[in-house]
Amino acid sequence: MRHLILLGVLAAASTIGMPAHAGLYVYEHGTRDMLTWHSPDGRALDLASPGGNGIRVDRIKPADRDGLKPGDVIVAANGQPVAHVVDLVNYANAHLQAACKLSVRRGHTDLQLALPAGELASLVHPQP
User: Residue 57 above 50 pLDDT?
Assistant: First the structure.
């Protein structure tokens, strides 16, 4: 009988505690050539590398985050080529707290975007 009461108390406590965590999630999905995430506060990122010639920014919110815009193609991180989304994620994982310079193609212009320490990791691994 004590076990049933304890089980009931635990079930009630977990149900009551759920609203405190409501909205604190980030939907994230990724493959070798795609990464997409969005959060309840409106932040979002969609990356794709369909041809293996760099990583296209399809959506980024807030607009112009870290200097990136939809249509930009990320071709390198600190001089290391990134042909697929997984290359960028692996680079971010290996350099979690490092500053980073992204080489980006915007139309016919090549740009260097400087990201502060840890920003690349937070871009590909968002926190609620």
Answer: yes
